[in-house]
Amino acid sequence: MVADFASVKRRLPDRDPLLQAVGFVILVNLIGSLPGVLSTSDTAWFQQLEKPWFYPPGITFSVAWTVIFTLLGIALWLVWRSDSSGRRLALGLFAVQMVVNVTWTPAFFSLEAPLAALGIIVVLWVLVAGTLAAFARVDRRAGALLVPYIAWVTFAAVLNFEIWRLNA
User: Has the keyword Transmembrane helix been applied to this entry (predicted)?
Assistant: First the structure.
């Protein structure tokens, strides 16, 4: 009976790393959602802007960012627990890109400055590309988890550009 319990225990995941991963996911989602608490797209200014034909339904943004921030949390956890020599650089780049990420929403919605927001998102794209490369050097899975993020930032940059262009 003891041998059976031991074999089952060996097959169960270690709870500490799993709890750490969940903690990273929650932390990244909390940080990523802060600008949405302070700024909103429900303003008269934003509602009157002309939007491109490919502007998605509003719910798309909440769903996409939740999925992306969840993937970022997992990727960050993978890099955090690595002992790779590139770990420090990858973590530093991640922190910088998150700071830039959270500045876009207030620049666009609170300051009502699509051109400034476009500049921010271009810088963000470069930082995300660098972070993706740095994460991939530490852990290929972590780098792969950032691919949807750079795709979404690319789409958001095009969307930001078009909103600026249509309303300039």
Answer: yes
